[in-house]
Design brief:
- The protein has twelve helices and twelve strands.
- The protein is of the alpha/beta class.
- It folds into two domains: about 200 residues, Rossmann fold (3-Layer(aba) Sandwich); about 100 residues, UDP-galactose 4-epimerase, domain 1 (Alpha-Beta Complex), CATH 3.90.25.
- The strands form three sheets. The chain has a seven-stranded parallel sheet, sandwiched between helices. The protein has a three-stranded mixed sheet with strand order 7-9-11. A two-stranded parallel sheet has the order 8-12.
- α2 links the parallel β2 and β3.
- The longest helix has 21 residues.
- The two termini are about 35 Å apart.
- Bound molecules: nicotinamide-adenine-dinucleotide and serine.
- The site of serine (SER) has 9 residues, from loops.
């Protein structure tokens, strides 16, 4: 077991809930933190504390007191919630990250993980096989804050020597914690509704293709990237990171293979224009080359696993 002491911010969310459990298998001390209460699994398996990333002094005291030497800074406001409250999203995503970066640099934290997103791209970005380096003109507050965040991360690496690493996650699909206010949330909700009601009303159009990733791939990729020797990490802004790409009609067709009477209807809302501003598929050749990234789950394999797991939850 590694002896580093890790702090995870925003650990009670969709990603953190599972990432903390995976980190606890390889690190002796992983402290989960959030504004809200953690799941029983998070609290029973190790320390869980209330920490607000907007209060720098509280964060700094905690890091000093517990000799934290790695931070996974997950706390953020996602795309759909961010468009409803831009000021708030900017503050949490920007001020929160700046606080964490400063606390790391001022207190000898040696490694930082910053989750970026496909939302750093915008309508002028090439949509298919979006390259690592390309036009980036995000048009959501979430995307703007994450792109600025990537630049700050790179700056702290270049100017302060902080070992910052980042992945541009696609939409994450999981069953342990519900999705937290994003545009890709339909790809989580559809499985729960399919298992419970055999029907789903989708807030995106049938043919809206987006990059997605099943949580086990996301967790494994994150840990693999963070464990890679520093000299192999050539991207300090955010690595393109691909799983599989599909549209609502594709996932509905896969679900119908298992639940034949499942039906889907479409009622696009404000999230449609956000989705249309994002890539459809991602070229992650740099991640493949630098640290050997390879996803395991395609749409079909993920659908089988998701349905088995959400059905088990629905029938408890
Ligand atoms: P989530 O919304 O489920 O969880 C975020 C957590 O941050 C919540 O538990 C929330 O309580 C917490 N939080 C908010 N403000 C805080 C504050 N001031 N101090 C402390 N905690 C605070 O989000 P998630 O899906 O788990 O995403 C985690 C990270 O991954 C985010 O940075 C997100 O931008 C990024 N990401 C997620 C996805 C996805 O599809 N889930 C895709 C790309 C990137
Ligand atoms: N899944 C996220 C969202 O939809 C993308 O970062 O906001």
């Amino acid at each position: 077991m590694h002896s580093d002491t890790i702090l995870v911010t925003g650990a009670g969310g969709q990603l953190g809930t599972e990432l903390v459990l995976a980190l606890r298998k390889i690190y002796k001390t992983v402290i989960a933190s959030d504004l809200k209460d953690g799941t029983p699994e998070l609290k029973e398996g190790g320390d869980f504390v209330r920490l607000d990333v907007l209060y720098k002094n509280g964060l700094a005291d905690f890091v000093k007191r517990f000799n934290i030497n790695q931070i996974y800074h997950l706390a953020a406001i996602l795309s759909a919630t961010g468009e409803k409250n831009p000021e708030f999203a900017w503050r949490v995503n920007m001020k929160g990250l700046r606080n964490v970066l400063d606390v790391c640099a001022e207190n000898g934290v040696k490694k930082l993980f910053f989750p970026s997103t496909i939302a750093v791209f915008g309508p002028t970005t090439p949509k298919v096989n979006t390259p690592q380096y390309t036009v980036m003109e995000p048009n959501t507050i979430y995307g703007i804050s994450k792109q600025a965040g990537e630049r700050w991360c790179d700056w702290y690496f270049q100017k302060r020597g902080l070992d910052v690493r980042s992945l541009r996650y696609p939409g994450l699909i999981s069953y342990k914690t519900k999705a937290g206010g994003g545009t890709t949330d339909y790809a989580v909700d559809i499985f729960f509704e399919a298992a419970e009601k055999k029907k789903y009303e989708c807030f995106l159009k049938h043919d809206t293709v987006l990059p997605m990733m099943y949580m086990p791939d996301a967790i494994r990729g994150t840990i693999e990237m963070m464990e890679t020797p520093a000299e192999k990490i050539t991207v300090r802004s955010g690595y393109n990171f691909a799983g599989c790409s599909f549209a609502p009609q594709d996932v509905a067709a896969e679900i119908k293979k298992i639940i034949p009477d499942f039906s889907i209807s479409y009622k696009p809302d404000f999230r449609q224009s956000i989705a249309e501003s994002w890539p459809q598929s991602i070229d992650d050749a740099v991640a493949q080359k630098d640290w050997g990234w390879k996803p395991e789950f395609d749409l079909s394999k993920m659908t089988k696993d998701m349905l088995a797991n959400v059905s088990a939850i629905a029938h408890v």
